[in-house]
Automatic annotation (TrEMBL):
Residues 5-66 form the HTH asnC-type domain. InterPro entries: ArsR-like_HTH, AsnC-type_HTH_dom, Dimeric_a/b-barrel, Tscrpt_reg_AsnC-like, Tscrpt_reg_AsnC/Lrp_C, Tscrpt_reg_HTH_AsnC-type_CS, WH-like_DNA-bd_sf, WH_DNA-bd_sf. The keyword DNA-binding applies. Keywords: DNA-binding, Transcription, Transcription regulation. Coiled coil: none annotated. This is Lrp/AsnC family transcriptional regulator. It comes from the Bacteria. It comes from Ruixingdingia sedimenti. Pfam families: AsnC_trans_reg (PF01037), HTH_24 (PF13412).
Length: 153
């Protein structure tokens, strides 16, 4: 879906991405408008599916989730039943922050947040008990260089 955004829409989106808890008054001040038009624009952006949801971003390390693994999954199975089972298993695991189906040698990549290597192994054991996987490679992130949820608008 492609939505036409003007400069004020873009400023509103930038402000909300920076801090979704901003008051309408503060957003209006930042974009040079008044509260009611800003509220109407936000409502329109939500209805159009541009704003999917508003949420809080938590510090994983503060919650004891110090290990981030990127899990590369290769499968020899490509039937719809296998895919449904795999996607269901991945979606049900709270440790999986992101999952992508890829083009190329790797079929899927998962971003997994856990407390430590033992917790990753428990995740891995649970996943392979639910669905047959040909090959799994886990890469431990040593340092997060950049992480953002802010899209260029």
């Amino acid at each position: 879906m492609n939505v036409r955004l003007d400069e004020i829409d873009r400023k509103i989106l930038a402000a909300l991405q920076e801090d979704a808890s901003l008051s309408l008054d503060e957003i209006a001040r930042r974009v040079g408008s008044s509260k009611t038009p800003v509220w109407n624009r936000i409502r329109r952006l939500k209805e159009a599916g541009v704003i999917l949801r508003q949420t809080a971003i938590l510090d994983p390390e503060a919650l004891g989730l110090e290990a981030c693994f990127f899990v590369l999954v290769r499968t020899s199975e490509h039937e719809p039943d296998w895919q449904r089972k795999f996607l269901s298993a991945v979606r049900a695991r709270p440790e999986v922050l992101e999952a992508h189906r890829l083009a190329g040698d790797i079929d899927y990549i998962l971003k997994v947040r856990v407390a430590n290597a033992r917790a990753y192994d428990a995740f891995y054991q649970a996943l392979i008990s639910e669905v047959k996987i040909h090959n799994v490679t886990a890469l431990l992130s040593m340092e997060e260089i950049k992480a953002t949820t802010i899209l260029a608008v």
